[in-house]
């Protein structure tokens, strides 16, 4: 019997606090650029700089949190299921970095409608108040518009990096230009072609003849002179300088690691940002330049101590030589990993990056940890409306390697075409996934036992069996009823041909599952009676056009150790 959907009606609600805020113009301002997509028209703008069309309507329908008949799923995914069916849905998750080009309500909604699963906040830029406003806007879209976008906070880390560019969003360095890198604190006007560096020992440690790589080698300099706290450098490879870009140093063909080893993984600023993220209830905290598993363990213990009910997942960013030396231990300790190829490519030979990427993806899957491939996926789309064919091939390879997620950085934060870049990731993911299934590629990856108890071992075997059964019978979907999300992650690890509908009663678990390959998370209350759960799910899903009568479903749960095969009535 289908349960009726009930809604609470609020007449003329007061506008959310963030609708009366203008995001600070310094140091990280929202662009007034109108969305690219023709679906979204340019809206009139109010005095506070936000589009008037995005203010709450006089009557807002919101599902209540106590009604057992309510089922919440991301509205963009619901549309995809309704139009294309479960088996044609996208499996690869998409992460978008939010910046000046996409922090407005219109732009955020366009990204959410375009398939953004996770919104990333880069704490290298912007104030905490700026990030808080973006968080409020994402939550408003989730609550009022029906999306289910998760929020990831990415710490700055304490590696050597440039400072701000005196208010500029970027600066062009040309071949032969002389630039000064200085540890001085510029309280007044910054001299032309001068960049501040955050590491006090920079001028002492660097030597004439050293090669300086900016942002993973996007711009290169040669050190030609040292004058007190100032280091004179000649540009040898031109490019765009961006605020707070990372700096790496090479001497006689080898990476200079000593200075980075002296810096803590989590800086004092990072700890304040982490406190902010916990207080704001972000879903993921990504830790930059992780060198050991102890850092991850310390952070997870700290999060648990700050909030016993916190469900924040910790993502380890693999972006340094030190990360690779302790790779397995770091991934085991974390809740997921990010292959940050830009900085990683500045610390290891470029030709090794592809094999390292594949190694990390395989290891994460074996250890049942979601993994994101990041950095320079569609870098040319910061300036141009179409990607290079090489970039499309790069994205395709990450999809074929079955990474859980793909991430846009500058493309969505400050690029001219963020919605188009997201559309490229979505369309390439869908096409390569379909090709993979049509060609019936065999997944030969061996998945080792990771269970620590006999009960967990049974769950692993059930998920393996359910996946094999679903593939053999060409099921339309796998259903999993899970309170913690663990059994859903085990199914994702098996990479079945059909999508996994993951039902969980906790909104935080639903958002956390957003990062796992092939999972479509639903927030739905359920009981220990599987027949009742299935009847309820079928009724709600059929009423909203996400499944149809005759669809073949394989069902498992973390309450009953069994596999059920059933056709939708």
TrEMBL record:
<dbReference type="InterPro" id="IPR015795">
    <property type="entry name" value="Pyrv_Knase_C"/>
</dbReference>
<keyword id="KW-0547">Nucleotide-binding</keyword>
<dbReference type="InterPro" id="IPR001697">
    <property type="entry name" value="Pyr_Knase"/>
</dbReference>
<protein>
    <recommendedName>
        <fullName>Pyruvate kinase</fullName>
        <ecNumber>2.7.1.40</ecNumber>
    </recommendedName>
</protein>
<keyword id="KW-0150">Chloroplast</keyword>
<dbReference type="GO" id="GO:0004743">
    <property type="term" value="F:pyruvate kinase activity"/>
</dbReference>
<feature type="domain" description="Pyruvate kinase barrel">
    <location>
        <begin position="90"/>
        <end position="421"/>
    </location>
</feature>
<keyword id="KW-0418">Kinase</keyword>
<keyword id="KW-0630">Potassium</keyword>
<keyword id="KW-0324">Glycolysis</keyword>
<dbReference type="Pfam" id="PF02887">
    <property type="entry name" value="PK_C"/>
</dbReference>
<dbReference type="GO" id="GO:0000287">
    <property type="term" value="F:magnesium ion binding"/>
</dbReference>
<dbReference type="GO" id="GO:0030955">
    <property type="term" value="F:potassium ion binding"/>
</dbReference>
<keyword id="KW-0479">Metal-binding</keyword>
<dbReference type="InterPro" id="IPR015806">
    <property type="entry name" value="Pyrv_Knase_insert_dom_sf"/>
</dbReference>
<keyword id="KW-0809">Transit peptide</keyword>
<dbReference type="InterPro" id="IPR015793">
    <property type="entry name" value="Pyrv_Knase_brl"/>
</dbReference>
<keyword id="KW-0670">Pyruvate</keyword>
<keyword id="KW-0067">ATP-binding</keyword>
<dbReference type="InterPro" id="IPR015813">
    <property type="entry name" value="Pyrv/PenolPyrv_kinase-like_dom"/>
</dbReference>
<comment type="similarity">
    <text>Belongs to the pyruvate kinase family.</text>
</comment>
<comment type="subunit">
    <text>Oligomer of alpha and beta subunits.</text>
</comment>
<dbReference type="GO" id="GO:0005524">
    <property type="term" value="F:ATP binding"/>
</dbReference>
<feature type="domain" description="Pyruvate kinase C-terminal">
    <location>
        <begin position="460"/>
        <end position="559"/>
    </location>
</feature>
<dbReference type="InterPro" id="IPR040442">
    <property type="entry name" value="Pyrv_kinase-like_dom_sf"/>
</dbReference>
<dbReference type="InterPro" id="IPR036918">
    <property type="entry name" value="Pyrv_Knase_C_sf"/>
</dbReference>
<keyword id="KW-0808">Transferase</keyword>
<keyword id="KW-0934">Plastid</keyword>
<dbReference type="GO" id="GO:0016301">
    <property type="term" value="F:kinase activity"/>
</dbReference>
<dbReference type="GO" id="GO:0009570">
    <property type="term" value="C:chloroplast stroma"/>
</dbReference>
<dbReference type="InterPro" id="IPR011037">
    <property type="entry name" value="Pyrv_Knase-like_insert_dom_sf"/>
</dbReference>
<keyword id="KW-0460">Magnesium</keyword>
<comment type="pathway">
    <text>Carbohydrate degradation; glycolysis; pyruvate from D-glyceraldehyde 3-phosphate: step 5/5.</text>
</comment>
<dbReference type="Pfam" id="PF00224">
    <property type="entry name" value="PK"/>
</dbReference>
